[in-house]
From TrEMBL:
<dbReference type="Pfam" id="PF00535">
    <property type="entry name" value="Glycos_transf_2"/>
</dbReference>
<dbReference type="InterPro" id="IPR029044">
    <property type="entry name" value="Nucleotide-diphossugar_trans"/>
</dbReference>
<feature type="domain" description="Glycosyltransferase 2-like">
    <location>
        <begin position="7"/>
        <end position="148"/>
    </location>
</feature>
<dbReference type="InterPro" id="IPR001173">
    <property type="entry name" value="Glyco_trans_2-like"/>
</dbReference>
<comment type="similarity">
    <text>Belongs to the glycosyltransferase 2 family.</text>
</comment>
<protein>
    <recommendedName>
        <fullName>Glycosyltransferase 2-like domain-containing protein</fullName>
    </recommendedName>
</protein>
Length: 344
């Protein structure tokens, strides 16, 4: 296998508790032709001091003049990367020792792919869990991004020399900048998927994103709807303002919509499915399969009652697509497990 240079980019802001362990997970990689590009965004703790204490000439530490925010900092990383590939890793996450090796091998093997992402595991909570991308093809992943972000940003490796002149993070998105970035990237470019757990995503601690969710909830909702609307426009889907709002209200991880909202969503999905058939935007089978997957996933994460879910499944089967007994049982089991976890 060729060994092109990989730039591992780490945005740094007040991560003194985690940054040493994060860097150690990169220095321990089985793939060694790498540089670590760290951009310090005005940290007020010991983060910068800790990075400087690690003696390895592959580490490049840069400082923003002041705290500029995550989109700006990510764009500095894109511009400063010297490698053929750029691997993204947030300052509190960890990389499996073979992450870079496996992703470089994939991108070298499939030169048409502009990026590759992987499964990941959340850790830090009482109940750790693996986050598996429920799709196998680029087309499925691309359509799924109409609904929500299935990509763990810290799992991404991009062909940075091909992309950094065209793709940057939008500074408007103080949150959701990763979702907006991947949505644009996936529209024109092929993204590969490796079904291995190659990144470990830390949860259960206070970070900028969680603070933003609580303090600027309404702004976040509006940005999410803008991502959805922009995506619909790219693919030439036409939805009314009311349909856009219903769609975002359901596919928003911060809200739990009621039975009536899901009923209204069915007509929105039916509209999208019919437009796709007429305009031939993508494969009919793929589009309907992704619609069903995203709908079932949303229901599984909802607070609907079992009787409401049963009624909803009946309507779905009569209007959109058949939901198998196995799929129904899966949703019921997930809901039961969530209720059991909340109880304890």
């Amino acid at each position: 296998m060729k060994t092109p240079l990989v730039s591992v980019f780490i945005p740094l802001y007040n991560a003194e508790e985690y940054i040493e362990e994060t860097i150690a997970s990169i220095l321990a990689q089985s793939y060694i032709n790498l540089e670590i590009v760290i951009v310090n965004d005005g940290s007020k703790d010991r983060s910068r001091e800790i990075v400087n204490s690690i003696k390895d000439n592959r580490i490049r530490l840069m400082d923003n003049e002041k705290n500029m925010g995550l989109p700006y900092t990510r764009n500095v990383g894109l511009r400063e990367a010297k490698g053929k590939y750029l691997a993204i890793l947030d300052a509190d996450d960890l990389a499996h020792k073979d992450r870079l090796r496996d992703q470089v091998y994939y991108l070298e093997k499939f030169p048409d792919c502009k990026a590759v992402v992987t499964d990941y595991k959340e850790f830090g909570r009482k109940f750790n869990r693996r986050r598996k991308i429920p799709y196998n093809s680029n087309e499925e992943l691309r359509i799924s991004l109409l609904f929500k972000n299935r990509i763990g940003n810290s799992t991404g490796m991009i062909r940075v020399r091909d992309l950094k002149d065209e793709y940057e993070y939008n500074p408007k998105y103080f949150v959701l900048q990763d979702y907006e970035f991947w949505s644009r990237l996936a529209y024109k470019n092929e993204i590969g998927i490796i079904h291995k757990t190659l990144t470990f995503y830390r949860t259960g601690h206070v970070n900028i994103t969680k603070k933003s969710l609580t303090e600027r909830f309404e702004k976040r909702r509006k940005l999410l709807q803008e991502i959805h609307v922009d995506s619909f426009n790219r693919y030439k889907f036409i939805l009314s303002k009311e349909e856009q709002e219903i769609f975002t209200s359901i596919f928003n991880p911060d809200t739990h919509e009621d039975y009536g909202s899901y009923n209204r969503l069915l007509s929105v999905l039916e509209n999208l499915i019919n437009q796709n058939k007429k305009k031939k935007i993508t494969s009919t089978n793929v589009f309907e399969r992704v619609c069903k997957e995203e709908l079932l996933d949303s229901i599984a994460n909802s607070k609907l009652r079992f009787i409401e879910i049963s009624s909803l499944f009946k309507k779905v089967s009569n209007t959109l697509f058949e939901i198998s007994l196995k799929q129904k049982l899966k949703v019921y089991l997930i809901l039961s497990a969530k209720k059991l976890i909340r109880k304890y």
